[in-house]
Records
---
Amino acid sequence: MTIQKLNRRTFLQGTGIALALPWFESFAAKNSQGNVPKRFVSIYHPDGVGLPLKEDPAWKDWSWFPQGGEKDFRLSKVLDVLEPLRQDITIYSGLSHPTARNVHGHSNADQYLTGAPVGGFGPYKNSISLDQVYADVIGEETRYSSLVLSTNGGTGAPRGSHTQSFNHQGRAIPAMSKPKQIFDSLFVIQGKDARDKLARTKSSLDYLISSTRAMKKKLSAHDRQTLEQYLDSVRDTEIKLVKAQKWIDEPMPKVDGSQLNLDVDPKQARLYLQTMYELMYLAFVNDSTRAITYQMGRENGEGPHDLLAQSVGFPNAHSLTHDVKKPGGWKNLGLYNRFQAEEFGRFVQKLKDTPEVNGEGNMLDNTFAMHGSASSSFHLSRNYPIISAGGAKLGFKNGRYLKFGKGNEDNQAGAGQTSDAVFKGDVTVEEEPLAHLYVNILQRLGVVTDEFAGYKGGLRGV
């Protein structure tokens, strides 16, 4: 490797294996791409969240939305795992896509990042997703214009998408789901000989460590520490993905969804999700991409995503939304939503703990991380539960609970529902188009636009 050519796209090379490097301050002045990266990541979870009625004893502890005002809000037990990040997050209510408000929640995930009128039946045509609009602008700066991930993988079917990303023609972009495949795409393995050697070794890094010796002499003390931490993180992720891969490849067990499966080992399901988050983190650290989507699960139907509920002791996730009327049902769904928030928070904290090398602040300051669903309570395609984190240096002010629209200030419209029939009900409250928030996001990521999905202008106060 030629040290003089070291920049954001530099790779350690060794025995057919290449490892993308993080950004070093020692070479920042020589780097023609001197601007701090602006990053976007969207995490989607299916099946909505728990919204018991205000008079239900479960409301105080297990309703997903906070209680209170913009800054004096109280997080319930569902989201209190994010309390340490309170000043780094914003929670939104009263947002949805107008074209999907009467679409059943089993068919609404396709339009979460597009806002397209795909409908619940009949002819199907989608449009470009938010991440791909940004990828079109920033994609030339990175090795991958975007990273598209999901637990299920592939594209799925219309109105049953396995991916959140759609191109200019509205075609679904296949998502990667296997941790090993993602790892190999980020830390390139080239040629059959390299693959054979890697199969016989404990870690691909064993071939690369020696390549860092000459480099270290050119690095500052801070950069040497950065390199060591980065290599340790990659090695740790590589070890974890072996177990995570085993979990994703296991066939779906036949279980009774109404009963706890006490024989389930929750570590593997949780480990899979943590590994996916670590791969996203590493993709940002080595600047392989600046746009990532991850669909935690598809709407409607069995699949590996349904087993993520093993992490909190349940056999599958989807049945939790149908069992809220049973004793402890709201709590059970709340515990699963809590698990989702906890792992998102772990990812956010990791970004916050990682300083930006070529600029002030940390990686979270320059990253807009979004976590949400296209359903609120019981597959109702309204009042999307959305959390954002970071973006302080992009212009986002956090530590807030923002309520939009009128007539649903306590988020009780559709709450307490235990039947799918609610999705056919009349829209009795006023909500803002989610596309307006997407305009805010694109503008602060540097995209010159005042419109998304046919809606002009951003949201007030964001």
---
Amino acid sequence: MIRLLLVDDQALVRAGFRALLDAEDDLEVVAEGTNGREAVDLAGRHRPDVALIDIQMPVLDGIQATRQIAADPALSGVHVVILTNYGLDEHVYAALRAGAAGFLVKDTEPEDLLHGVRVAARGDTLLSPAITRRLISEYLTHPPPGARGAELATLTRREREVVALAARGLSNDEIAARMVISVATAKTHISRAMTKLRARDRAQLVVLAYEAGLVVPGGG
């Protein structure tokens, strides 16, 4: 059973999401909140597998709430998925840097929402290749301070290759097929790279790959 926390300041939005999620046999909404402060408190109290958090809320916004959840070692198993009305707006990149596992647009198709929740729960990045390309563009337009290039020296050649593929939006299965290795081996490379680069999850690994210059626009 995948346990979910749902945080949004609009009651109708929460009700709609909850009805959809609770109708699934493997999904359960264990708590609801109305602002970022409640998101942090409820995450600590319930330890959900996935926290669906609106990006714009009173008291504490979704980015700040995500940052606090990600900074708490006791909540390392909580995968934050940001909910947004506008797709890749100016806040989403900051949310990923803060520790979000990905994001969903609120008007996404129901089956895509359910798939996204399950993807996040198993620790995969909730970013499509199209979104990945837009993230690269956003990074080039507004590069974050502090390059991480030096840390790439700690990665093996295979780890660098796996990180580059993950940063382009490939899943573990797709990485394994591309590199002609087992899925388990692909997961191992990803895990080791995350440890070396001090990335909380695959989404942060993607962002770090951009910062370090491992992924460049137009790269194959």
